[in-house]
Structures are given as C-alpha cells and as structure tokens.
Amino acid sequence: MQSTENDETKGLKDTVETLYRTKKEPRKSMATFQRNQNKIMVNMVNVLDRKAAILIRINTTLISGIVIFFEHISEIENGMLIGLVLVSCSFVSLVLALLAAKPPLSRIMKSHKKEIVSNYPDPETNSFMVGLSGYLSLKEYEEAYHKIVQSQELQIGNQVRTHYVFEKNMVRGFKILEHSYNAFLVGFVFTVLVFVFSNVIRLL
Predict the structure, then answer these.
(1) Which tens digit of pLDDT belongs to each residue from 56-76?
(2) Which residues contact 7 (CB under 8 A, 6 or more apart)?
(3) Residue 181 near residue 55, CB atoms below 8 Å
(4) CA angle 81, 85, 91 (to 5 degrees)
(5) Which of 72, 118, 122, 183 could disulfide-link 93, Cβ–Cβ 3.0 to 4.6 Å?
(6) DSSP track, 18-82
(7) Domain segments of the chain: what residues?
(8) What is the model's pTM?
C-alpha cells in the first residue's frame, strides 16, 4: 500500500516537472485557463468590495438614524428593545464589513512568508507578487527576473503560488462578509418579529 502511494506521488511529480520544465511554449488551453482564473479572481474581489460597501452604507445609516431618533423610537411599545438590538446587530455587521473590505496586505505578507518563502526560499520563486519584492536590491531583482524569463517552470510556478496566496485571503474575506450579513439579518428579523408580535398581541 505504501509502495503504491509512493509510486503515485512520484508519478505526479514527474508529470508536473515534465509540464513545467520544458522549452516548448505552453498550450493555448493553459494560457486560457490562467487568463480566466485571473478574471475570476479580479471579479470576485470586486464583488467582495461591492457587497461590503452595501452593508457599510446601510449600517451607518441605520445606526445614525436610531441614535438621532431614539427618543421617538422608545415611545412605541418595545421600542427601546428594538432600538438597542438593531443598533447592536448593525454595529457588529458594520465592523465585520469593514474588516472584510480592509486591504489585506498584512495578511498576504504573513501568508506569503509562512506558505511560500518557507518552501521556496530562492528570490526567483517567491518574490514576484505585488508588494512582496521590496526587500530585494535592484541587482537581486534583475537577476531573479532574468531567471524567470529563461524558465517556464518559474513563470507558471510563480503564477500558481500567487493565485494560492490571493485566493486564500479572498476566501477569508468572504467568510467575514458572510458573518456580517448574518449579523444584519439577525437584527432585522428580530426587529420585525418583535414589532409584529407586539401589535398582534395588542389587537388580541
């Protein structure tokens, strides 16, 4: 069993090396795949920013309105409870939305150092990501870039590693944004239910 797993691992490694370590140009399907992957990533980042911006606008408006008109809201039945719960949930949702929209440079640098540099210590294998090659001198940068130009393995490998780091942080942002929407929905649903039940009980 162990021998079979080792053979499969070795075969996969040989296949990857055969694909990357070649002087031939990569197939058009590979270029199309990477171009589509880049477009998807950019689009998903834009979606993340837009969704976070929607929640930021809604929550700031809600919090401001409730604070300004809190005296009037507290005059209705269960108005104080509704106002406090809605403000609390909106505040949590606002904070999470801001965290989701915050530029992730520090997280990307941490992930890059932990996941990439530890496994690929050479500059030509870990430096060509936006904002992560500043520690190199101009000479080191040019030497590393020259190696990349001469190696298809480095060209594709750098793109794959860059996608990995950015996708990992993008997923984290979407998880935070999901919690932000959940917090907003909890406050909104609670407010509507309390308001409806209060008026139904009054009618009965």
Answers:
(1) 999 999 999 998 988 888 888
(2) none
(3) yes
(4) 150
(5) 183
(6) HHHS-SSPPPHHHHHHHHHHHHHHHHHHHHHHHHHHHHHHHHHHHHHHHHHTHHHHTTSTTHHHH
(7) 31-203
(8) 0.74
